[in-house]
């Protein structure tokens, strides 16, 4: 495997608390998990799901194809980039100076996309890759919608698809990202430093569905600011509350701040579905969640306006800050 020649700057990170018991575990096959889902979204904005219904062979096949792509020489992979917005990217995250020890593929969730950038690399196998991506996206989107509908029931929101219909809309602005964190030549994990794989941030969309191979690296921030490491589990999925869902629940749900540190000696692969609304969708707290004279904490905005603002910012910025209402004292 070809690796990057020079790693970006090292950064001393706050040492995470390794108490994995903090992370809620939710079995989606059980008949009544609504209360657990709501509590997890309120307390952490993050949880792990099992019995999710996504076929193991589909996960394995797509991961295999992705690793095959990332094992190609950089000069070959670069033919699928730069991301505009979709395609292959290397080190640079966004347009504002954020860098990480990773390479990635950013793909549309539009099933009719021809992935023309990959045909020169994959040849006929490009169709197989596209087919696997489409099947995988359909499976994780179905799971995400089921979770959102159970959450709506737990919040007593009508209709039940108040959140999920935004992901199922033909104009849904959802994306799919495959991140690869390669081994780091000469990196010593014993010196107490961590290499930023992907800097701390929140996800701007409604919900994120994440899985990775059995390599550690993901960390989330608790309400008190402490970071905890998320033990890897390649058989399960992890769910993030996004900024848009935080707004739609008027701050009741919390968009989780998270980051990835590079493992150093092992290759880490993660695949993330970001469920987003149509660009023209107005994002605001749902009226049915507003209690009595409770005021909205946020100005109403369209997803296009928020997305445009978020992608102009740096990763660690408080992206929702620009859209919060200032309460008069």
Give a short synopsis of this structure:
The protein is α+β, with helices and mostly antiparallel strands and about 325 residues long. It is about 25% helix and about 20% strand. The strands form three sheets. It has an eight-stranded mixed β-sheet with strand order 1-2-10-7-12-5-4-3.
Could you outline the blueprint of secondary structure elements for this entry?
Elements: E1 25-27, H1 34-43, E2 46-50, H2 56-70, H3 74-77, E3 87-93, E4 98-108, H4 116-122, H5 125-154, H6 164-168, E5 175-181, E6 196-201, E7 207-212, E8 218-221, E9 227-229, E10 237-241, H7 243-248, E11 258-261, E12 268-275, E13 282-283, E14 301-302, H8 303-310
Parallel strand pairs: 1-2
Antiparallel strand pairs: 2-10, 3-4, 4-5, 5-12, 6-11, 7-10, 7-12, 8-9, 8-11, 13-14
Rg over C-alpha atoms, rounded to the nearest angstrom: 19 Å
The number of helices is: 8
Q: In which order are the strands of the major sheet placed? A: 1-2-10-7-12-5-4-3
Tell me the structural class.
Answer: alpha+beta
Q: What's the average pLDDT? A: 86
Low-confidence stretches: 1-15, 17-21
* Helical content band: 25-40%
What form results from the Cα inertia axes? Answer: globular
Task: Walk me through the structure.
With 329 residues, the protein is of the alpha+beta class. Helices cover 26% and strands 22% of the residues. The chain has eight helices and 14 strands. It has helices at 34-43, 56-70, 74-77, 116-122, 125-154, 164-168, 243-248, 303-310, and strands at residues 25-27, 46-50, 87-93, 98-108, 175-181, 196-201, 207-212, 218-221, 227-229, 237-241, 258-261, 268-275, 282-283, 301-302. The strands form three sheets. It has an eight-stranded mixed β-sheet with strand order 1-2-10-7-12-5-4-3. A hairpin with a 4-residue loop joins strand 3 and strand 4. Helix 2 (56-70) packs across helix 5 (125-154). The radius of gyration is 19 Å and the shape is globular. Mean pLDDT is 86; it is low at 1-15 and 17-21.
